Amino acid sequence: MKKVVIYTDGACSGNPGPGGWGTILMCDGVKKEISGGKSNTTNNIMEITAVIEGLKLLKYPCEVEIYSDSAYVVNAFNQNWIIRLEKKRLEKF
Fold first, then answer.
1. Which of 87, 2, 13, 3 is nearest to 48 (CA)?
2. Percent of the chain whose predicted confidence (pLDDT) is above 90
3. Which end of the chain has less neighbouring CB within 10 Å, N or C?
């Protein structure tokens, strides 16, 4: 099984305010960088969006290692909040 390492970050100027996120995926020596943003958002939304967008790029089952400096993101995975958060995010669309 391939291993993908994902580095993420998100930020916001004001809370809420304009924000952005960035993600780097690495697998077998190949690096892919993606990013995005919103004009009116929160820091936590940008932090978790970075992770979600990185995971959405995966095309097959693999081992994933995620790095984040956000306690919100770490707790989302360690305490299984991520399932509820993603469901809520999809309801907005």
1. 87
2. 76
3. C
CA distance 81 to 69: 17
Range of the domain at 45: 3-91
pTM for this predicted structure = 0.85
pLDDT of 83: 80
Please, what is the end-to-end C-alpha distance for the chain in angstroms? Answer: 33
Amino acid at 87: K
Q: For residue 43, give the nearest of 85, 14, 84 by alpha carbon.
A: 14
Return phi, psi of residue 75, to 5°.
-65, -35
Of the candidates 20, 28, 23, the one whose C-alpha atom is nearest the C-alpha of residue 4 is: 28
CATH number at 28 reads 3.30.420.10
